[in-house]
Every structure is written in structure tokens, then in C-alpha cells.
């Protein structure tokens, strides 16, 4: 879907609606905040944000403070933030301050929601925190092309046996949204994750580096398939992907800022220990990533959380700049 067709569709939808709801192509109601709706109608830069990072990725109250600060950074850089979640069964694009707080307090009581979970959650009117895959789906429905997060899911270590491959990767292969992340954590198998992204036809671009970053560290030992050096260059890449209607997503990997990557070796030993504990406790499936994230945070005495917050904010700044450049290409 090109940006102009998405915007004109939302314009048409808005003409018929007095509230800030729209129906997707199948007729299911989706709530879109007035601020996001207006920004899309006017062709302004909009950046989507996921909510699993709030509910399952960080503890309360740092999760709420970070979510609010990230939205602020996006605004300060000239774009409109659109945090996405499912509340009482309604997919919401753009949360009010109250809704954001509700989600942050719910924490892991909100369901971690990937593509497979969406229909059940809507049907049962539950509360869902969207992962990268589910957030991409709703961003794409609304015509939002850029989405900022911390890290994406990947092929888990020993994934060749367990087949635990995050649905984030298959979503990137089928939904034309650009995900800005700090790469993939070394709790995962990074070389296999890159192989799988190639299989899925996903364009993986590293920002101002030749190497694919490993979330807490700038390096992973893996080359990135391509490189972009400015927000404008990245906007042209996204535009080409949309204009050609390739229908696949883009993964923009932004390395953690140097001053926050120092504790990399400390984090690596914590990761090794957390992985061992996960195996001993038999933690698998979609519980594995949240377990590893919180255990690594405990084992590093909070150092990993500090790095995590710093890199998400950095991604928000760059993601907003890319979104502004993309909006300028279309004006
Ligand atoms: N990686 C992180 N932080 C996160 C996640 C992954 O460093 O918060 C979350 C994201 O929401 C991502 C999801 O989409 O975990 C992937 O989960 P799984 O590995 O179960 O597919
Ligand atoms: Mn999984």
C-alpha cells in the first residue's frame, strides 16, 4: 500500500466517521486516536510503537516513564507517536495517557500478543500488549510506515531443533513496515536470524555501520546486508520498497550509542546464565523472551535495563527523523 493511498483511505474513512474509529478492510473496528488520525490525514510523520516492551519488557514504573519519554522524543523530533495495543478487545492506534498507564500497570497480566493471538483477544475482549509482529499489522492497516522498538525477536538458540523462530521475522516478510531496532539480542542466534530474514525477503539495513548490531553491543560479528548513513537515505530506501509494492518489511538496525555499550561483557555472562536457567526450568515458547529479559536485568543489577532504555530512546530519535524525511519525500 502506498502512503498516498493509505492516507486517502483514512481521509475517506474520516469523512464518514465522527469518532476516531475506522474499520479495516474486513469491517473490524479499530480505534485510532484523534492526534494520529489527523497526522495521517495531513501526511505528517507518524511513528508506531509497540506495547509488549511496556508490559513484558520492563518493570513498572520504569516501563511507564520510558514509554512516555519515548513518545516525547518522537514529538520533539517532529513526528507523532502512535503506541499500539489491544484494550478491552479493541485494537488501539495511539493511546491516551490513561490508557498507557493502564497497560503499564497491567504488566504481564496483559497478554503478549503476536499475530496468532489477535483474533482470540479481540473475540474475548481482552487486553493485549502487541509484539513487533502484531504492532506491524495494525501500523500497516493505518498506513503508518515506520515503527520504533528496542529489539526484535529472532531465531532462538537451538532453534534448528525447537523451531522457536519469532513471528516477528515472518511478519517482516509479509508486511511493508520499517522496524527500527538495535538489532537482535545475543540471547538469540544472530547468524540464523539473518539467514531467516534473507529467506523471508526482508531488507536489513544497518545505520552508519557495516555490522549488524547485537542490541547491548554495537557488534555481532555479522555483516549487515546493506548500510544507510542518513535519515534521508533511509527514507529513500523505504520509499523504493513502498513504490515497488514489494510487500515486505525493512529492518533498520541502529547500534546502541557507544557510551551505553560498555557493559557488553557483563551482559553476555548474564545471558549465558539466564539461558542455562531457562533450559533447567523448562521455559519455552513465548514465555522465553520475557523470562530472559527480566533475568538478565536481575543478574546485571539493572545495568541491562539502563542500556535498554538508552537504546530505545536513541531509536526513537532516529526513527522520528526517518519518518519526517519520508513525509517530506511525499510533499
Ligand atoms: N526483544 C527485546 N525486547 C522485547 C522483545 C524482544 O529485546 O521487549 C519483545 C518484542 O515485543 C518482540 C517480542 O516482538 O518480545 C518477541 O517475542 P518472541 O521471541 O516470543 O517472538
Ligand atoms: Mn517464540
From TrEMBL:
EC number: 4.2.1.70
Cited Pfam families: Indigoidine_A
Classification via Gene3D superfamilies: Indigoidine synthase domain
Molecular functions (GO terms): hydrolase activity, acting on glycosyl bonds; metal ion binding; pseudouridylate synthase activity
UniProt cofactor(s): Mn(2+)
Keywords for the protein's UniProt record, in alphabetical order: Glycosidase, Hydrolase, Lyase, Manganese, Metal-binding
Top-level EC class as recorded in UniProt: lyase
Any one GO CC term of the record: cytoplasm
Subunit comment: Homotrimer.
Protein name per UniProt: Pseudouridine-5'-phosphate glycosidase
Amino acid at each position: 500500500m502506498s502512503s498516498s493511498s493509505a492516507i486517502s483511505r483514512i481521509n475517506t474513512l474520516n469523512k464518514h466517521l465522527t469518532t476516531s474509529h475506522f474499520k479495516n478492510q474486513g469491517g473490524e473496528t479499530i480505534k485510532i486516536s484523534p492526534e494520529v488520525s489527523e497526522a495521517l490525514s495531513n501526511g505528517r510523520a507518524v511513528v508506531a510503537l509497540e506495547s509488549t516492551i511496556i508490559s513484558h519488557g520492563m518493570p513498572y514504573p520504569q516501563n511507564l516513564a520510558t514509554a512516555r519519554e519515548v513518545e516525547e522524543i518522537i514529538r520533539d523530533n517532529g513526528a507523532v507517536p502512535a503506541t499500539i495495543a489491544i484494550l478491552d478487545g479493541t485494537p488501539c492506534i495511539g493511546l491516551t495517557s490513561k490508557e498507557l498507564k493502564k497497560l503499564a500497570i497491567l504488566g504481564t497480566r496483559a497478554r503478549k500478543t503476536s499475530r496468532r493471538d489477535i483474533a482470540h483477544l479481540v473475540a474475548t475482549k481482552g487486553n493485549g500488549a502487541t509484539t513487533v509482529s502484531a504492532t506491524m499489522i495494525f501500523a500497516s492497516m493505518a498506513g503508518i510506515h515506520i515503527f520504533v522498538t528496542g529489539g526484535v525477536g529472532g531465531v532462538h538458540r537451538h532453534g534448528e531443533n525447537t523451531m522457536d523462530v519469532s513471528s516477528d521475522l515472518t511478519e517482516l516478510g509479509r508486511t511493508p513496515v520499517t522496524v527500527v531496532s538495535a538489532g537482535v539480542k545475543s540471547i538469540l542466534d544472530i547468524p540464523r536470524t539473518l539467514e531467516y530474514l534473507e529467506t523471508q525477503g526482508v531488507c536489513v539495513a544497518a545505520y552508519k555501520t557495516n555490522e549488524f548490531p547485537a542490541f547491548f553491543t554495537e557488534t555481532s560479528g555479522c555483516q549487515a546486508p546493506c548500510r544507510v548513513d542518513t535519515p534521508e537515505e533511509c527514507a529513500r530506501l523505504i520509499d523504493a520498497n513502498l513504490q515497488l509494492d514489494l510487500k515486505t518489511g525493512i529492518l533498520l538496525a541502529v547500534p546502541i550509542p557507544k557510551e551505553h555499550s560498555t557493559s557488553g561483557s557483563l551482559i553476555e555472562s548474564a545471558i549465558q546464565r539466564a539461558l542455562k536457567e531457562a533450559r533447567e526450568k523448562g521455559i519455552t515458547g513465548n514465555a522465553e523472551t520475557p523470562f530472559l529479559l527480566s533475568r538478565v536485568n536481575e543478574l546485571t543489577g539493572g545495568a541491562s535495563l539502563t542500556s535498554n532504555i538508552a537504546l530505545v530512546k536513541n531509536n526513537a530519535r532516529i526513527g522520528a527523523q526517518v519518518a519526517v524525511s519520508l513525509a517530506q519525500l511525499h510533499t
